[in-house]
């Protein structure tokens, strides 16, 4: 019986400053053949070193809202004054090719994904404690005190939604955290809910055998 090789949709979220982007890069470096990172669209200004079409598709509010109207996004949300969203076509193509598609999005978008795609896997990334989160935000050196305060306040709100995720990964040691995520994904791919075609095939064969035995 042929196994269904369709990839699974992986949503990785975390507090701003938790290091989820760095964690995803390490996961791709170690196991890039198994994963594909979905590039999100955003209206925020690029940070130093970020490239359009690589880290994000950078656009303006008018184009983003036009994309919403054309149903061109799997999900979208507003975060700290900017839009973020996931282009639909890219994700669907990669999943059909058997790749596990990673969406690095915030909690509002993650819960929308879970609602539309119940078989998706939600992983929340957090630092060991709040003090470390504050230190990492300040260590960026790219944001004002007001923005940092806003991100910490948002983190306090988001902490109420962590229980909706499938797994929680404490991003303390990068290499270990990347391997932990990889093992969680490998286990999730074996769950019956994500192997429906395989289960259906076995069920049909068993019914066929049982019917033949009764004849």
Summed up, what is this model?
By secondary structure, the protein is of the alpha/beta class. It is 46% helix and 20% strand.
Task: Give the CA-based shape.
Answer: globular
Q: Helix proportion of residues, in percent? A: 40-55%
Rg result = 20 Å
SSE class? alpha/beta
Element order: H for helix, E for strand: EHEEEHEEHEHEHHEHH
Distance between the termini: 24 Å
Mean pLDDT: 87
Structure summary, number of beta strands:
9
Biggest sheet, spatial arrangement of strands: 2-7-1-8-9
% residues in beta strands:
15-25%
Question: So how many helices?
Answer: 8
Q: How is the main sheet built?
A: 5 strands, parallel
- Poorly predicted residue ranges: none
Word description of this protein:
The chain has 215 residues and is of the alpha/beta class. Helices cover 46% and strands 20% of the residues. The protein has 8 helices and 9 strands. Strands 2-7-1-8-9 form a 5-stranded parallel beta sheet, sandwiched between helices. A 4-stranded mixed beta sheet has the order 4-3-6-5. α1 (20-31) crosses α7 (174-188). The longest helix has 19 residues, at 196-214. It is globular. The mean pLDDT is 87.
Structure keywords:
alpha/beta; 20% strand; single chain; five-stranded parallel beta sheet; 8 helices; four-stranded mixed beta sheet; 215 residues
SSE diagram, text form:
Blueprint: E1 9-14, H1 20-31, E2 35-37, E3 40-42, E4 56-58, H2 61-69, E5 73-79, E6 82-87, H3 88-96, E7 100-104, H4 107-116, E8 121-126, H5 130-140, H6 145-158, E9 167-170, H7 174-188, H8 196-214
């Amino acid at each position: 019986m042929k196994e269904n090789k369709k990839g699974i949709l992986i949503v990785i979220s975390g507090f701003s400053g938790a290091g989820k982007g760095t964690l995803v890069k390490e996961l791709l470096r170690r196991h890039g053949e198994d994963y594909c990172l979905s590039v999100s669209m955003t209206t925020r200004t690029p940070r130093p070193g970020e490239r359009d079409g690589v880290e994000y598709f950078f656009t303006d509010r008018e184009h983003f809202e036009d994309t919403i109207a054309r149903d061109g996004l799997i999900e979208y949300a507003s975060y700290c004054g900017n839009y973020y969203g996931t282009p639909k076509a890219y994700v669907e193509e990669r999943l059909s090719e058997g790749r596990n598609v990673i969406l690095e999005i915030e909690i509002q978008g993650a819960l929308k994904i879970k609602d539309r795609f119940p078989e998706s896997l939600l992983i929340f990334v957090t630092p060991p404690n709040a003090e470390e989160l504050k230190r990492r935000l300040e260590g960026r050196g790219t944001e004002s005190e007001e923005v940092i305060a806003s991100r910490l306040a948002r983190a306090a709100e988001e902490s109420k939604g962590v229980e909706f995720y499938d797994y929680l990964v404490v991003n303390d040691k990068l290499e270990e955290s990347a391997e932990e995520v990889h093992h969680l994904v490998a286990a999730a791919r074996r769950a019956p809910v994500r192997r429906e075609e395989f289960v259906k095939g076995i069920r049909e064969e068993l019914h066929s055998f049982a019917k033949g035995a009764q004849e």
